[in-house]
Design a protein that fits this description.
UDP-N-acetylmuramoyl-L-alanine:D-glutamate ligase; six-stranded mixed sheet; 17 strands; 39% helix; 15% strand; 474 residues; globular; alpha/beta
């Protein structure tokens, strides 16, 4: 019998359809009263605990127990950690699974525009109405005890996942791994660790080895762990040994499926070449732009193969099926080419607009590689529009982009208390050697000023997912 605070599975009208329909960014309600209620609930969540981030499992485990332990009643789980590429890898893996007929739950963070982006139930974005029901249930159980926003949202996600049927759950860690609120599922069928870079050093440690240790904390005894592409700096820090040591410390070793060892993927002209002990596949590149997305695709394919084996599924890694799935990935804000909307309409002919939420050193390297490719392609000038939060390192992020940048326009993130001071950003850019450094009060004026510089060019808006969220919501 259900406890009083539990609810039955949502009606089909709340989920719209069990089959994913046309992809959209979020599932915001058309009813202003509903959105007002959701905003009030979210504000209440933020008031419970002064720290936005607090590395601990104690509160979330206590709270999940009070909710009836929904995290112990989930479909098979794939748990994903890493610094760069988590969301892209999950988007690719979801596309592969859905193309093979699987229904997929997904939890990702942060959201760009609206909190409904964070949860997919059997392929469909959760509605604002159902999210309100779940959060209200969680609030009633919590009784104003200290808990972070992410912990509460994660618990609500587990409630939803436990009440709606699906074949697979894809869980993205919020920041770390070992002490992340998602790391309470005892028996995932697979874990994935994507590229390790320096980020959130205050919480995860100031070296790549320490960060890898925290990310590797999602490994579970006997559960295969796919290790994604690692940068030269990460290889020099010998993070492979960190992962191996974690695996060896478990009661039963976690089999490591490592890029460059058990599997590999490399660009080959306009295609990509995936190899493993059992596969040698020449595939089309994913529809997400950037060489780093080739590496993310490789991690997704390696994990997909493990999942199929676990489910005893007859599907195999047929190139045609993989190409189709990897050609229809939806993941906004990752080298996203904006081809419609008011901002795009305001651009003169001959200009292109891209958005990317990159904000750390590895993201800068990957974006610079795309800048180099663009330069070789047509040598159009590249103009940056950048805003960042003050806990990031703008010098480490921007340094790789310097050789490919014609101008940089700096902004602050509207409504974000931790937005990097615009004058400090300007001083940093000038000291780094950027020649044409500008400040803009709003995005429209930034676009206007840049497009007056020449008849043609590319604009890359980057530095923060929160910044992109402001732009996309506008």
């Amino acid at each position: 019998m259900l406890k009083k605070h539990q609810q039955t599975r949502p009606k089909l009208s709340q989920l719209k359809s069990r089959k994913p329909k046309v992809q959209k960014l979020h599932n915001k309600s058309d009813n202003p009263a509903v959105e007002k209620q959701l905003d009030e609930i979210l504000e209440k969540l933020y008031s419970f605990y002064s720290q936005e981030i607090d590395m601990s499992l104690e509160r979330v485990e206590r709270f999940l127990h009070q909710l009836g332990n929904p995290h112990l009643n989930l479909p098979p789980v794939v748990h994903v950690a890493g610094t760069n590429g988590k969301g892209s890898t999950i988007a690719m893996l979801r596309s592969l699974l859905e193309a093979s007929g699987k229904s997929v739950h997904v939890m990702t963070s942060p959201h760009l525009v609206h909190p409904t982006e964070r949860i997919r139930l059997a392929g469909n974005l959760i509605t604002s109405e159902y999210l309100i029901e779940l959060l209200e249930e969680c609030l009633a159980v919590n009784r104003s005890e200290p808990i972070t926003f992410f912990e509460m949202f994660t618990a609500a996600t587990y409630l939803a996942f436990s009440r709606v049927q699906a074949d697979i759950c894809l869980l993205e860690t919020g920041m770390g791994g070992r002490l992340d609120a998602t790391n309470v599922v005892p028996n995932p069928i697979c874990t994935i660790i994507t590229t390790i870079s320096k980020d959130h050093e205050k919480f995860l440690g100031d070296t790549l080895e320490k960060i890898a240790f925290e990310k590797g904390g999602i490994m579970k005894s006997g559960v295969p762990c796919v290790i994604g592409y690692q940068t030269g700096a990460a290889q020099k820090a010998n993070i492979d040994k960190v992962f191996q040591d974690i695996s060896n410390s478990l009661p039963t070793n976690a089999p490591l499926i490592r890029y460059g060892h058990e599997w590999s993927i490399e660009p080959q002209n306009d295609q990509m070449h995936y190899t493993s002990a059992d596969h040698d596949l020449l595939l089309k590149r994913p529809n997400l732009l950037g060489i780093h997305q080739i590496y993310n695709a490789g991690a997704a394919i390696a994990a997909y193969n493990i999942i199929l084996e676990h489910l005893d599924d007859a599907n195999e890694l047929f190139p045609d099926k993989l190409n189709k799935a990897l050609g229809t990935i939806q993941w906004p804000g990752r080298l996203q080419h904006i081809t419609n909307g008011s901002f795009c309409a305001s651009l003169p002919k001959g200009w292109e607009l891209y958005l990317d939420g990159g904000h750390n050193d590895s993201a800068g390297v990957f974006l610079a590689e795309q800048g180099r490719k663009w330069q070789e392609q047509d040598n159009k000038p590249l103009h940056l529009i950048v805003a960042m939060v003050d806990r990031k390192n703008p010098k480490a992020f921007l340094k790789p982009l310097l050789p490919y940048t014609s101008s940089i326009t700096l902004m602050e993130i509207t409504g974000e208390e931790t937005s990097f001071n615009i004058n400090t950003l300007k001083d940093t850019a000038l000291k780094m050697g950027f020649k044409d450094v500008n400040i803009a009060e709003n995005y429209a004026s930034a676009l206007k000023e840049i497009t007056q510089k020449a008849n043609t060019g590319r604009i890359l808006t980057t530095g923060s997912l929160y910044f992109l969220g402001n732009i996309l919501s506008g």
